[in-house]
Structure formats: C-alpha cells, structure tokens
Amino acid sequence: MSEKLFTVGKIVNTHGIRGELKIVPHTDFADERFAKGSKLVFFDPQKETRLAVTVQSAREHKKMFIVKFQSFDHINDVEKYKGWLLKVEEQYLGDLEDDEFYYHEIIGCKVITDEGEELGTISEILSPGANDVWVVERESGKPVLIPYIDDVVLEVDVEEKRVKVSLMEGLLD
C-alpha cells in the first residue's frame, strides 16, 4: 500500500436511502474522477483506513456530486463513511497540458514576486468562479489571494515548488 494518494473530494453526507453519497469535489477534474468505473479510495483521516471503491454512477448537484459506488446499495452501507476523504491513486492521475497543474503540485509552493521578494507559501486553492485563487500564507500579516490568471502568475515550477508572480495593484492591502 505504498501507492501515493491524492484527495479528490470529501464525503459530507449520505443522499437518499440507496447508498448514494454527497461529495464536495477537491479537484478540477470532477467529471473524470467521478465517471462510471473510476477507481477511487475511501480514506479515513483519523485512522488512516483505506477502502478501494469503484464509481457506479454520479451526477452533479448544487456544486456537489451525488455518487453511488459499486456494492453499496443502502444508506446503512455508507453512513459510516461521512467525513472521510475520497482519494485517487497516483497511477490514475492523467497527464495534463503544460499550463495545467494538480492541486497537490501547487499547495506548498513558495511564491516569489517578479522583483525577487518572497511572499509566502500557497496553503490552499479556492474556486470561486471564473478562475482559481491561490491563498498565500505570509509570515506576518493577512494571507494574500493570488488570482490564477496570466497577468499575475508568470511562472510555475512544480519541481522546485516555486511560483513567480507579478503583483497587480491592490493585491497587497
């Protein structure tokens, strides 16, 4: 079980009585991740218990996904998984285009301005609308919200865990 796992969602509740689960997606590829036949892993963050599962069906519902997994046909089968994470094994990660990244590649990157000043470290990725926003934690002061747009994010080096940005006026308030 040394395969690396990456979080693609969180199980927040059951849905109905037929064993469906409400999932909050933590991925830009939800349609692909929750596609019929997709191999995922239930992961208990407290006990680090793992359970391999296969998607039987899924549909989007109010910014969440209602997912039914094979062999889980009743609410009693899935109730205990509320609060667990949904993960994918590294072998199932697809190749991305040059300007696309997985969340786990971005979180933890150091952010440096085009003037060489170290801004902080990316702690999370928000998806409020048209483009993602990267949250940069600083040693002092409030976090900086960096919109993931070409004018701001100049360079991303996932190998070196470094992101170069150009700060637009008003980003550092």
Entry keywords:
mainly beta, six-stranded antiparallel β-barrel, 173 residues
- Number of extended strands: 12
Helix content: under 10%
The fraction of residues assigned to DSSP E strands is: 35-45%
Number of helices: 3
Report mean pLDDT, rounded to a whole number.
Answer: 87
With strands numbered from the N-terminus, the spatial order across the biggest sheet is 1-2-5-4-3-6
Q: Give the overall shape, derived from the CA principal axes.
A: elongated
Structural class: mainly beta
Low-confidence segments, ≥5 residues, pLDDT <50? none
Can you offer a commentary on this structure?
- By secondary structure, this protein is mainly beta.
- Helices cover 7% and strands 44% of the residues.
- The chain contains three helices and twelve strands.
- A six-stranded antiparallel beta barrel has the order 1-2-5-4-3-6. Strands 10-9-8-7-12-11 form a six-stranded mixed sheet, with no helix packed on it.
- Strand 1 and strand 2 form a beta hairpin.
- The longest helix is centred in the first third of the chain and has 4 residues, at 30-33.
- It is elongated.
- The N and C termini lie far apart (46 Å).
- The model has no long low-confidence stretch (mean pLDDT 87).
Quick summary of this structure?
The protein has 173 residues and is mainly beta.
Blueprint of the fold:
Elements lengths: L4 E11 L4 E6 L4 H4 L5 E5 L6 E12 L2 E6 L5 H4 L6 E5 L13 H4 L3 E4 L4 E9 L6 E5 L6 E4 L5 E5 L4 E4 L8
Parallel strand pairs: 7-12
Antiparallel strand pairs: 1-2, 1-6, 2-5, 3-4, 3-6, 4-5, 7-8, 8-9, 9-10, 11-12
